[in-house]
Amino acid sequence: MAEDSDGYTDYSIVEEPRYFLIRLSGRSRGTLIPETANAWFGTFDDAAKYFIARRVAAPTRSRVLPDLVESINTRWLDRGLAPGWDQLDQPDPGGFSPATRYFRSDQPERFYFTVNTDSATSFVLNLGWRELNSTFSEGLSGIESIPMTKFLHD
């Protein structure tokens, strides 16, 4: 974006004793953005899906296809949680309250917190890697000619 051309955002996924933390830092219009926690996940797989979907694929799609009526992420807004997910009000791992812990009822090790109330992420995390890839690439012309990565479950 022109107003942000001198900036950058640096993301990292950090393994902590009980969760995986997504941190961000960077610079925007000459102002340094201090390193801050952005989201916490119980599994690396879920942290990676969130990062790929929300921080890479969604912004890339909106730049490549700016005239889309609906972005991928908005299709899940106002639908509540994906099947199998539940929520509990509790401080996030950084101690911020009020916050919401979203978790799989059948797999309590799969949980997440984001800096904003975010039930739509549960839909992203329910997707397999192949589904995630096809969901965020739908409508992109020429995508069918790009070789598909082999996924663990293939």
The strands making up the biggest β-sheet line up spatially as 1-2-3-6-5-4
Structural class: alpha+beta
**Beta strands, count:** 6
**Integer average pLDDT:** 83
Percent range for β-strand residues = 25-35%
Poorly predicted tracts of residues: none
Order of helices and strands: EEEHEEEHH
Q: Please state the CA-atom Rg, rounded to the nearest Å.
A: 17 Å
Net shape: globular
Determine the number of helices (DSSP H or I, runs of at least 4 residues): 3
Distance between the ends: 38 Å
What level of helicity do the residues show?
10-25%
Provide a quick synopsis of the model.
By secondary structure, this protein is α+β, with helices and mostly antiparallel strands.
Question: Would you kindly provide a written description of the structure presented here, covering whatever features stand out?
Answer:
- By secondary structure, this protein is of the alpha+beta class.
- It is 23% helix and 27% strand.
- The protein has 3 helices and 6 strands.
- Strands 1-2-3-6-5-4 form a 6-stranded antiparallel β-sheet, with helices on one face.
- The mean pLDDT is 83.
